[in-house]
Amino acid sequence: MxxxxxxxxxxxxxxxxxxxxxxxYVTGALPRRNTIPILDCVRLTASGGGLRLAVTNLDxxxxxxxxxxVQGEGALCVDARRLAETVARLRGELLxxxxxxxxxxxxxxxxxxxxxxxxxxxxxxxGPEDGNSFxxxxxxxxxxxxxxxxxxxxxxxxxxxxxxxxxPGAGFMRFTATDGHRLASLKVxxxxxxxxxxxxxxxxxxxxxxxxxxxxxxDGVVIMTIDDNRLQLSSGGETHxxxxxxxxxxxxxxxxxxxxxxxxxxxVADLKTAVSAAMTACQEKSRAVKFEASEGxxxxxxxxxxxxxEASVEAxxxxxxxxxxLNAAYVLEALEVLRAxxxxxCLSDGNSPVVFSTGDELRQVVMPLRV
Length: 371
Prior knowledge:
single chain; alpha+beta; DNA Polymerase III, Chain A, domain 2; 3 domains; eight-stranded antiparallel β-sheet; 26 strands; elongated
């Protein structure tokens, strides 16, 4: 298509609700802040029997395909948010017509027109499909990312911590994230054959929420492709691509305590309630909560200049232990991803990291605070 024609020839009929849904799948890749107009756009490509949508922010790209009655093949770029807002108000069959230099939308008695940019201006993140590609259950990736992403760092200096570290093994994958104050690591049986091994990669934190939503929709087999600097996931007419974090993940095994431990076993729900209550008196900056274990009782408390709050959990498997302090927000996030009804808090002494264990393959560590 010639540069100056800006989508001439694109003429297709789609279901408005389907287009609105598919736009929702890809707009997570729009940049949060942007001064380059083309990065606010979705590229629409009509060909064969469908319409393909693509959005990129130069580090991440999301694509989705929907059925369409294509009367004229073509491609164009249009402001993604403006298109999504317009399509969300339309119903039934929607005609997309770019034969006159702008994108005209017609559905019933509704008409709209949106300016367009040339498809050639779109900065495509796709490259040669020469990476290591294999099939994997969406549940494996979903469990891995969702269980550890809360520990991924947000600081700029140690950029190599800003994501989830994915390591392959013989029939399993391990997902790990840490921000230096806490750590989560999950080993998941993957069913991926040894021949599909790849070098460990760091998947950036910025894409994880979009990936988790995609994996929940996929609910089956996902095609995973990894090359030197990109990860691509595809399923059900959707493709999501991200650049990988270029850095060396630290040797996290060194910070996971090996014991011997004092083990404090309490119900997860009761501990959530007690920590939530105790943190109402926390200093806002540290959110430090003190934990004191006596025979059969674990007490959580916090104190500020003008307030004190205490809550306790009664359980059979609570032995006496040295008092220790933890960030209450970190504790609640660690408990939120647990599937078990009971959790063990494992510590060597009051100044050591605390391991949260449920007897499965998820390991979580929270560094102590002075209280």
